[in-house]
From TrEMBL:
GO CC aspect terms: HAUS complex
Lineage: Eukaryota, Viridiplantae, Streptophyta, Embryophyta, Tracheophyta
GO molecular function terms listed in the Swiss-Prot or TrEMBL record: microtubule minus-end binding
Name of the gene this protein is made from: Haus7
Record keywords: Coiled coil
Coiled coil: 171-198
Gene Ontology BP annotations: microtubule organizing center organization; spindle assembly
Organism (species): Anthurium amnicola
InterPro entries registered for this protein in UniProt: Haus7-like, Plant_AUG7
Name of the protein described by the UniProt record: HAUS augmin-like complex subunit 7
Keyword Ribonucleoprotein recorded: no
Amino acid sequence: MASRQMEEIQRKLATLGYPRGANAPAQSLLFAGVERYVLLEWLFFRLLGDKSPFTQQNWQGDSMDRDEEITRIQHLAEIANFLGITSSVDTEAIQGKGSYEERVEMVRLILDLVEASCYSDYPEWSVDEQLAKDMLLLDSIAEKQAQIFSEECKLFPADVQIQSIFPLPDVTELELKLSEHSKKLTNLQQMVQDLASKYAYNPNEDYAETESQLRASLETFLETVRSFNLIYTKEIHPWTHMMEVPQLHGFGPAANRLLEAYNTLLKFLGNLRSLKDSYAAMAVGTESMTDEPSSSVSKIIVECESALTFLNRNLSVLSASVTREQGGLTI
């Protein structure tokens, strides 16, 4: 990217007629040295024109001692600040500071300014003349201010509807309306307080009823799971060790009911954690209105999880049997 920009810079220098463009290496224009100082001086005085407040120095040769270099850098830094290229008298900017891309960008910016000044309407430009023209423009606007901003000035066509500007209401009228609205608000607040005093409001009422229903449902579910665990421990678990590859058809007609119960219990196991999270979110910031501890439902959920986990730990054989049964039915 930077190399392409340097090619563009060299092309613009040739277009502008820079006398040392053919002999100056591209890299020497970006780093401190005679070539960079000569280029900046040439560009700056192209921008300043004939009525420049700065005197162009006649530096002899391509070599100079340290004092001459410091003087030349200071002179260029003052010109750059005058032109607005730098915000202060920055000698480091003249010598080339920052990254490679930043150095290229500075040279490209100055070149664009010079190129734009070549195609301006008034190539013989000076700061004093431009300031004088700007002042004349401001004076003419000030003299015709009444005409420019008068009501007779037609800014819109005749068919465009212009809304009228209504005058601002009086402060006394606004204060009167504010007083009326304040009275209405006070009356509404009094009505709300009267209603609240007649009816006891319990924000936890719905929560207590829901908690009671949830506890009853979970207790019933826990009893079912425990019963199934008992059946599994006494009947299914011994049967799974009686044969090398147990098959569900050994249960006879009860196999289908066993499959349905197993699938239902697996769904319960998958959704029980969501139920626990939902209850915890519902209970946050709400006080229980029952005499039982607020964590009673949480305890039942934990017991259900424990019972289902115990059941699921021993159902791997049934899972394999379900797969074989479904495969046999498909065939």
